Amino acid sequence: MDLNKDVKYIKGVGPNRVQLLNKLGIFTLKDLITYYPRTYEDRSKPRNIAECANGDEVLIEAVACGSLSDVRLKGKTMQKLLVRDETGSCTITWFNQSYLKNKFEIGKSYKFYGKIVNNFGKITMTSPVFDEDKKNFNTGKIIPLYPLTYQLSQNVLRRIMEAGLAEVEGKLEETLPNYLLEEYRLETINEATKYIHFPRELKDFEQARKRLVFEELLCTQLALLTLKNSYCKDEQGISFNKNVKMSDVINQLPFKLTKAQIRVLEEIDHNMEAKTSMNRLLQGDVGSGKTVVAICAAYKAVKCGYQVAIMVPTAILATQHLENFQKMLEQLNIKCELLISGITKKKKEQLLERLANGDIDILIGTHAMIEENVIFKNLGLVVTDEQHRFGVKQRTKIAEKGKNPDVLVMTATPIPRTLALILYGDLDISIIDELPPNRKKIETFAVNTKMTQRVNGFIEQQIQEGRQAYIVCPLVEENEELDLKSVEQLYEIYQKKVFPQYKVECIHGKMRPKQKDEIMEKFKAKQIDILISTTVIEVGVDVPNSNIMVIENAERFGLAQLHQLRGRVGRGNYQSYCILKYEGKSETVKERMKVMCSTNDGFVISEKDLELRGSGDFFGTMQHGIPEFKIANLFEDMPILKCVQEIATKILQHDPRLEETKNLLLKDLIKDKFMKRIEI
Ligand code: ADP
Ligand code: MG
């Protein structure tokens, strides 16, 4: 038996169906048997006709009491069949299925599965699937339902699956070591494969699924940890000088660091001094003070004789970082420069030259920094801010401009720790779990559109007191053109109708970086009262005087994103407000708004977000470089994930290269799944 055999050789698969299967990502026998059901329908236990309630989807076992009659009805034909069991009778109907004509014999028993309509005691079932009494193709068992593609039916795919499974039945080689199967009471790969498709009862399914999820998560976690080990082993990283003290810059700061900031700086310092290169994720809620951590790390790298690259997703953010870095580091004789796509050719040439000969210590910029002609003299530290905007590839690309530089990845998307271990399992993790003191809680209100006037009144009152406001536009789609339209519409409304007496401006992703910067500068300088914006302001921009944010159509945003946006206010000494305007009455929307109003804790919000959206979406919105899971669901399977994380760590502690005989299967497993990414 060859698992890599083309699906076209499987019984029932003709040229036409090959194409359909390919569309589903099924090319080989292995792909087929690992194409798991989306859900199941229990068609195994018959019910008595008299006991069926309106709307139930049920299996009935009944005898045909008459022959099938064809009825014409407004151009359609309808087939009717009266059947009866010991408790009652039921009229079965189909539409346009004349071929059924000779299928049923009076007095013979059949099984029907379908939806019951009970109209004051008159029971009917429309378009059921059926089997002859003793047959079990469509009924009599739990039936898997697969994700489908147009023109491929459940019945056809199920038949193909049955044929595929028949070929491998009992012949699959075990993929997990025996000691794990025994210790965690997992069933064999043969059992799991059979029962995940055709469970005899619920328990079969649960056991099979547990085994497959375990395998999938274990394999991913082992692979990531192995990848992490390989960073450390293969080549030596930079060992930064122990005599250069971060405290020199810390003492210059205008504020005292929080305990959490000090702790992560110690972790980073330790990592930088070690011989192995640093690959660290720094997580901290918006406003927790990650920038200053990056400044301290950069200081150390520069004073040890290396250059630093700070890569951020937007030009606005790069500019703001530049200011902050310069404020702290220029006095210490460190040269910081900005590289964004908007600068002139001549300026850029000069910049690149100074970079290459080591005249620039810290280069801050956008992905323009990845371009080939950007050459560092000796890059020693790479910091990427707001990681979720960059792919793993971009992170690696910038790091390749140095010789094993240390890498610090900063993100404001709080991720529950277990999840971080699987999303960023190849990185060490530091968490800032404390905000600087005296931050006021951002008061958040969810309102429907009827409240618009009151909200506007409130904005006016705040502006009168000298504050400024953000108004964030609904996300129309992942489509900048449409988003643009909505900014402009909002601008019209607010500037012309609502607040003609104030200065309103708008800012969006389609503007040139320079233009965006100018507007942000004006907003910072208080020359603009109300800034209408798309989510370009989502990341990092700091305007302490602005204390009110109105988010239009808040229901269109994810919780994590709302939280990020909200983080733009509450940065100064003023009480800040976030007003979520939403439309619609759905319970999920209300629940989401409730979460936002009840907490300012990014970790709580991200867990809720995950729960309400499911992990699929969570992963979809992040470019993480991890293959999608075939069966695991990171939210539902959190207990298995936790268990597997411990197992993976333990296994690698004892056998880091998976060389022991008992672990060879695991090595195969990760090689098979992550072939391109990992060399062990
Ligand atoms: P984020 O983690 O969202 O990037 P920032 O680094 O932009 O947060 O910090 C937010 C604000 O808090 C900045 O104005 C920064 O100067 C200030 N800040 C950072 N750390 C402290 C601290 N320990 N005490 C007081 N203010 C701080
Ligand atoms: Mg930041």
Plain-language structure description:
The chain is of the alpha/beta class. The chain contains 22 helices and 21 strands. The strands form four sheets. The protein has a seven-stranded parallel sheet, with helices on both faces. Helix 6 (202-233) crosses helix 21 (638-654) and helix 9 (290-303) packs across helix 10. The longest helix is centred in the first third of the chain and has 32 residues, at 202-233. The model is unreliable at 616-625 and 676-680 (pLDDT under 50). The protein binds adenosine-5'-diphosphate and magnesium ion. Residues 290-291, 385, 540 line the site of magnesium ion. The site of magnesium ion has 4 residues, from helix 9.
Secondary structure blueprint with pairings:
Blueprint (H helix, E strand, L loop, with lengths): L14 H9 L5 H5 L5 E4 L14 E8 L4 E5 L2 E9 L4 E7 L13 E11 L2 E11 L9 E4 L8 H15 L9 H6 L5 H9 L4 H32 L13 H4 L8 H15 L5 E6 L5 H14 L3 E5 L3 H15 L6 E4 L5 H12 L5 E4 L13 E7 L6 H8 L6 E6 L5 H7 L4 E5 L10 E6 L3 H13 L3 E5 L7 H19 L5 E4 L5 H12 L5 E4 L12 E6 L7 H8 L10 E6 L4 H12 L3 H12 L1 H6 L17 H17 L9 H11 L6
Parallel strand pairs: 5-7, 9-14, 9-15, 10-12, 10-13, 11-12, 13-14, 16-21, 17-19, 17-20, 18-19, 20-21
Antiparallel strand pairs: 1-8, 2-4, 2-6, 3-4, 4-5, 6-7
This protein binds adenosine-5'-diphosphate and magnesium ion.
Describe the structure concisely for a colleague.
It is built from 22 helices and 21 strands. Helix 6 (202-233) crosses helix 22.
**Ligands (ions, cofactors included):** adenosine-5'-diphosphate, magnesium ion
Strand content: 15-25%
* End-to-end gap: 28 Å
Task: Calculate the mean pLDDT score and round it.
Answer: 87
Helical stretch count? 22
- The number of strands is 21
Task: Label the structural class.
Answer: alpha/beta
Helix content: 25-40%
3D shape: globular
Assembly classification? single chain
Largest sheet: 7 strands, parallel
